[in-house]
Design brief:
four-stranded antiparallel β-sheet, 17 helices, three-stranded antiparallel β-sheet, 3 domains, 603 residues, hpI Integrase, Chain A, alpha+beta
Amino acid sequence: MSSKSCVGKSNMGASSKSSVGKSNIGDVCNLPISTSSVGKSKSCRSSVGKSDTGDECSGGSSIGGVERRGSSGLEADHCHGQSEVDGSHGFAGFVSNVGAVPFVGPRSRSPNRADFPKVLPFKKACKGAVFEAGCSVDGRSRMLAAFDRDITAASSKATGCALWTTWMEFHDVWFNSDVPVLPLDGNKIRCISACFKEGAYKGFKNYLSKAKEHHLLAGHEWSPLLDFSAKRACRSVLRGVGAERQSQPFDVCKALDVLGLPGKVVLPTGAPVGWCNLIVIGTFFIMREIELAYAKVAHVKICMAESKVTLLLPVSKKDPRAIGCERSWSCLCRDGGGSRPDCPFHAAVAQLRLLESTFGADMLQSLPLFPDQFGLVADKATVVQALEATVVGYGGDILGPSGARILGGHSFRVTGAQRLAAAGVEIIKVMVLARWSSEVVLRYVKDAPLAGLSEQVKCLEDKKDLVRLLAKAADGAELLGSKLGGMEGRLLGLIADHEAWTRRCELTAGRTGNPPFVSNGRAKHLKIHKTSIDGMEFPPYLWRAKCGFRFAFCGFTRHMTMVDFAADQRCAKCFPIEVSGKGSGAEEALTSSSSRSEGDSSS
């Protein structure tokens, strides 16, 4: 194919006014460059942002069975059928009281964006299609163009063009038209890299990588000298420029709160319908802006019985084969009644309800999940502007220290990853949910563990103080235990000595001839006790009965016999046998005991 074949209308059906450096195949940014025709071409800028998705050989596109409807660009998922909402078709079975009015509005632009990935509707290999296309020159050219087009993702084509255009423009600063851009050499890399250093380009490695790609595709060798020059250029250009720009997170709770205040946030024209729901779903499913724009109503499945929403994510940058995957979230409300404003399940239900009431039930399955007011796909710039307006509404920053904007299409993805990591979710689960196959997730959640650092330090200090106090208390308890052990031994010795002394006192009291009984002298509760220690040879504070009653300092009366006392007036502790017997034998025993005592006294 000649270099002129890619100028004007290409075989892919996509219009391209000019090709960078006279590319010899259809893709203006990713193809070999002829060294004799590079010159001072700057025309690649005309193709930046152009879509080449209008390939006449594909007809329509599908995503896991999603088929495009002719020219309207609205899609319906025939694989999944209707959304599973309460077991009915569409969303009307779930919201029966919503008065849906068919929406009629202008179609001011294409419903799809140039950066949308394209998925072919083929379900299995077809050898006949290969032979049919190979029978003609146009067919073979179309096959090559389709092959070259899908080397890079649709969302990366404009970026690749811009990288190579900038490299060629900086080449023109140093060299005239007689010096071609390719092949590269050490001097060209040094001079062009000096331009990037002067402009403080933090993404210089991307520009250098694109230049190396074109150098290799043009058939030139990447020698060790070029590799050495490239490493030296990277060290010089990137020294002191700081980190590359990365979309920063935002506060979801504050955003939802401020959006609930009427008139507090003014969203730009063309903002997605259901902006609050987009924030919740985008952060919980850790989605890129292009994935939010590409999501369709037909990709959503809602199970009301389990309170679970499932979203089909068919294509991403890391999914070039369009295998697709499903991610699910159940209701996060504690009462299950939608009391939590950032519940992904209730956000999905509310979004479908909103779309049906706005555009009508007949259009529901063909709509994007987050369309603009015309039912078309919202563009990235409008989504970022709506996010900035929301952040400004709750008093957040949208500019960094250097004045650069810090919010972007990846802010939903960064916010979702950091929220889950800060909540304690394992990094591996965050990677699976976000469809990351590498450790790039660490770039997003690297600051998440710092959330609540001050409170954690206070808690750890309190725990440390508590451990120290517990250790001190344990030492004190051990010392106290040893002291108590010694005291217990001494107390047992005192008890034994006291019992021996008490027995000696009782023997001495029996020989003194004192009356063996004593009453408490109370008329209502008269009790008679048997003395244990009594007599003038003992101090009064030691006088006591066998039950322990100390009678010296209360009105008492000594008795030689108990004949005058009834059985219920005798102390149960002093006379346990006599009281339980309550018989004549007990009386005779007490009387004989008293007689013996009196006889001993008289003698």
